[in-house]
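#struct-pred
JK: can someone run the complex with magnesium ion? inputs below
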Amino acid sequence: MITVQNLQKSYGGFQVLHNVSLTVARGEKIAILGPSGSGKSTLVRCFNRIEPHDAGTIVIDGTRVDQTIELTRLRCMVGLVFQNYNLFPHLSVLENCTLSPRVVKKIARAEAEDLAMNFLHRVNIADQAGKYPIQLSGGQQQRVAIARALCMQPSVMLFDEPTAALDPEAVSGVVDIIDGLAADAITTLCVTHDMGFARRIADRILFMDRGRILEDAPPETFFTQPRTDRAREFLSQML
Ligand code: ADP
Ligand code: MG
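RT: done, structure tokens with the ligand placed:
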């Protein structure tokens, strides 16, 4: 589903990603771990071209992500949910979910509303459809952000620290949602600092340090027998 080869990215003179290569199968659930500043957010942002990369290739579902790609099409294909949700404060929950399908995909209002209610049900927040973001808890806003991304019917979903502001019950809700995505063959990449969450969702763990992927392993291997000293040190600090 995703093939990345020798990805490089710098900000000014500072190289953030060094020759990152990876492949991800359709429906796989990947957790990306690593210290702050290791390039995790930059990597996932390159996938939907919020950040353009400098060298190397990214191919998603057969489409090469480069300067020639039509961004609206890419962003329909690859959904991104941020840590701080980024909901539109002046729009209701339902309107947050229908805006892009209507404007970008030109779907009629009634159809967009049906689609949105379907995804709001799926993330268990349909009863709040008429409210505004400020009237919801953090966990509820997170569900709306996920539903909003799903309304574009992406084949890849990127999450950047989705549980950072959530209580344990809301975290379990996100685990269930991500499991549901995999059942629908949606591929998930999730940047997280939450080791328990990573263990619960991931088929595979990528461990990054200073712009490189140092480990790529199933969770049981990564958490019990990390290969590198850097990962061992990182995990010991998390205990
Ligand atoms: P992580 O998500 O792993 O914490 P980031 O990908 O956010 O790491 O950042 C990696 C490095 O790139 C950090 O040193 C950060 O300061 C730098 N960086 C991130 N975004 C920018 C930017 N827009 N301009 C300049 N430097 C940036
Ligand atoms: Mg980050």
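RT: quick notes.
Residues 176 and 201 are 9 Å apart (CA to CA).
The first helix runs from residue 40 to 47.
JK: thanks, will look after standup
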